[in-house]
UniProtKB/TrEMBL annotation, chains A, B:
Gene3D superfamilies: EvaA sugar 2,3-dehydratase subunit. Residues 35-237, 251-454 form the dTDP-4-dehydro-6-deoxy-alpha-D-glucopyranose 2,3-dehydratase domain. Pfam families: Hexose_dehydrat (PF03559). This is NDP-hexose 2,3-dehydratase family protein.
Length: 462, 462
């Protein structure tokens, strides 16, 4: 005799509704009023000593340039390393180049724990300091752990709440998908983006706070409060409401993307950091003589709230502030976003969908207008009434120093951008992008940040 | 004034129904009765001279071992090359090895054109000869073209019907997705799998035939009639009927897969073919001294029906016949297939979902039972009444010589395989696998062959 097996519904039809209900609750949550959140964050920042100092590479503890290759590595061989990359795209204003790049083959976990209070889903976020954050402390997922973190190489305290995401006793998994990170700075990096619903009681520890999705949305309107790891998980939420249609069917959109991905046949070769052409190293940084793109620097960190109390590490420091924007246009009564099929050297599968504009304007300021990124001037010149959303967000503060970008949604008209945009661009709805975010290899991390603002209600489409 | 824009439905809700109606029509199509198909194929085979002879490498025309690397390359630098790979998986019965591997970075098109006749969708297939096919002529997609084919490097005739798949006048695209090919023999190869519905008249040329999906299903019950390129496209059809549920929700299944993919951190390095350890080369082949896995050989081809009338090329010739099987089990009234998360050295993202058993038994015959592939003995010992489906199919005859495998679906009971299978295996429904086949990086090509048999009705689940 075999006991009857209870089947599960393949798709949790109630989840989108529950997420939208959480997004609609903006003023207060089970634990804190939205108006009090900045005070709570300031309090958390005061509770922890945290100083970050730039140091020379030879002052790094545990890190050194490997003999021969010159790669910047940790003595354990874990965490990450900085190596070299040679790239030949064959087209564009910079058809080939060499650069340092971070290699971190392990897939970490970016996991948010959710639980219902008073019938509304709340997200357990952590006030977490990272050395590269411009304001040090931001809200991060419940768990933000490299495999080194949770397999013990870090030699620090255990990762709180990790048991909800791994092992037999974990909660109900709503999302668990590998998503890429910055293709310009990471070599084929991806992390597990997870949303797990707790099945039992969860006691919020110090530095942790239960927030509704709407509260997170309110915070996403502010500069540098919700960190990248949090944003990318929220981008993966299956929250999309129905749309009456789209300019292109899902199949047509996927076909366009397939053509774009197939169009590129880049030559990407790893090489020793010491052999990278066009970059120079002094005691404190590795940079290009023209100062463009980014610098590799080293910092020391003194903190009390992190897994270990002090450490030093390399960071990538982009030069200048980025501009990352989707153009938004009404098409047939449905808002559409102009996506870009963007080749990035570090992406595993060459091309992912990016915002319309994703660049650092300083890097192209010396170029004639025709060679600057398409639509950049349109975004920079947008009058206030056209700017549907703007906030500054920074990228992962554990790897990037002051990597800030202006994230924008900018309204345009049919006279400015036609239904048939230039090659490499295409119109898609938020629902279409949300569907693709349920799988890896489609949306790059910058596109996911802007999508998270829509999911959490920080920005609304017309 | 802007003209009103007609939006499209994001998902074509009628397509699954139309595909199922085509699958249900098994006896005859618009153009030919199913009973007459083998006669038509034999007639096509007679119409074309086609001889394949094994030759020495130095008799290859246009191909040679490159000085220094020893890589086997075409003088144009196009088509493909045979290079070396060094693999360290770190676990399994063979934790590290070196091997020759085919590199072909371009994404070709595997495209089937469909059109309704008498209210039923028909698929335009081609009777096509490939040198590696054990029986030379099989049914292939309407278009089976490398980029070299259609950008003219081949210097042959134009590819018929290509205009339906590319360019502004193409038909209605139902499917266009990049799918992997054999990870043991190809280095990061993928092709566009396309299904396009013709918008106007289409005249079937000689060697082409309109078939219902049900007719293709009948042919899939036979050995070596429907080629791999055709099978993988059919696997991507959005045909799944609703299921009342599954042992695991889609999110849980994806999470299991994410864990499996993250678990592997293989070291894969390209190296010169001349430097590959453990293989030996003579005038006619490159092989291992123990004869296992495969040989690299060269053939000359004389044909009249292909784009060019004669050529020579290298082929990979696996040793022995493969066994590729899904175990099938009823769980809670719904049939489930036992999928394997299989690491293959040539896959772009390390791991894809494979059938329960995918191996060449000869390669493990020398091993103790505990080290042989899990479930292989169960498949080999299955009594006839347990074998739900069996046919021999061969892999891409343009690259592989006599690469035949027994493809099976084998019924098992709960006493034989539990709800919680061994690590690396999981139960999934056909509908779940069909959903994943709509995206790349999920199902390997062998799993797609078996899925195509279900989609076309060659095999039916209980």
């Amino acid at each position: 005799m075999t006991a009857a097996v209870a089947l599960r519904q393949r798709v949790d039809g109630a989840l989108p509704h529950r997420l939208r209900r959480s997004a609609a609750q903006t003023d207060e949550g089970h634990m804190i009023r939205t108006a009090d959140l900045l005070g709570w964050l300031a309090d958390r920042a005061r509770a922890h000593r945290f100083t970050v100092d730039r140091i020379a590479f030879d002052e790094l503890d545990g890190w050194s340039f490997a003999p021969g290759t010159g790669n910047l590595v940790h003595h354990t061989g874990r965490f990450f390393s900085v190596e070299g990359l040679s790239v030949t795209l064959g087209e564009g204003t910079v058809p080939s180049w060499e650069q340092p790049i971070i290699r971190q083959p392990e897939n970490g976990i970016l996991g948010i724990l959710v639980k219902e209070f008073d019938g509304v889903l709340h997200f357990l976020l952590q006030a977490k300091m990272e050395p590269g954050n411009p304001n040090q402390l931001q809200l991060s997922p419940t768990v933000q752990a490299t495999r080194s973190n949770y397999t013990g190489v870090h030699r620090g305290a255990e990762v709180p709440y990790l048991e909800h995401f791994t092992g037999p006793g974990r909660g109900r998994v709503h999302i668990d998908v590998l998503q890429s990170e910055h293709g310009s700075w990471f070599y084929r990096k991806s992390n597990r983006n997870m949303l797990v619903e707790a099945t039992g009681e969860v006691v919020p520890r110090a530095d942790f706070c239960w927030l509704t999705l709407g509260q997170i949305g309110e915070l996403l309107r502010l500069d540098n409060v919700v960190n990248m790891d949090c944003r990318t998980v929220i981008a993966c939420l299956p929250i999309a409401a129905g749309e009456p249609g789209a300019l292109h069917s899902d199949a047509e959109l996927q076909s366009w993307f397939t053509v774009e991905r197939s169009r590129w046949d880049p030559t990407i070769e790893c090489k020793p950091l010491a052999a990278v052409a066009g970059w120079e190293r002094d005691a404190y940084c590795i940079r290009r003589p023209d100062g463009r793109y980014f610098r590799l620097v080293a910092v020391s960190v003194e903190a009390s709230s992190r897994e270990v109390s002090s450490w030093s590490q390399p960071l990538i420091e982009p030069t200048g502030t980025g501009v990352t924007a989707f153009l938004v246009r009404d098409i047939g009564g449905v808002p559409h976003l102009l996506v870009q099929a963007k080749a990035e050297a570090g992406l595993l599968d060459k091309v992912e969908l990016a915002p319309t504009v994703q660049c650092n304007p300083a890097n192209s300021a010396h170029l004639p207008a025709a060679e600057r990124p398409p639509f950049l001037d349109l975004v920079l010149a947008a009058p206030p009434e056209r700017i549907r959303y703007e906030a500054r967000h920074s990228e992962e503060g554990g790897r990037f120093l002051n990597a800030e970008s202006r994230y924008l949604l900018v309204d345009v008209t049919g006279d400015e951008v036609a239904l048939q945009p230039p090659a490499g661009f295409q119109w898609a709805t938020a629902g279409q992008l949300g569907g693709l975010a349920g799988h890896g290899h489609y949306l790059n991390v910058q596109a996911r940040t802007l999508l998270s603002c829509l999911h959490a209600g920080a920005a609304r489409l017309p």
